[in-house]
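Predict structure. Chain length: 87.
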Amino acid sequence: MAQLLVQPGTVTELAEPFEMSLPAVSKHIKVLERAGLVVRTVDGRIHRCSLGAGPLRAVASWLDPYRVFWTDTLDALAQFVEGDDDP
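Prediction complete.
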């Protein structure tokens, strides 16, 4: 998915950096497709993949309130550890 964040690619291009067979990579991509995280378009024998951002946006939206909580909590912890008395 990190590769797809940079740019869409074919299944072969996505498989290149990994020591896995093409069928194994394709199987992983199918799982990501079912989750909506990858969108595959087929043009003849070429299978192009791109990032499906919808589910990631939903997760990011759900996590936002927790991010604020943890940022504030970790900032307070840092101040405590550094000896600053004002939280």
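Summary: The longest strand covers residues 38-43.
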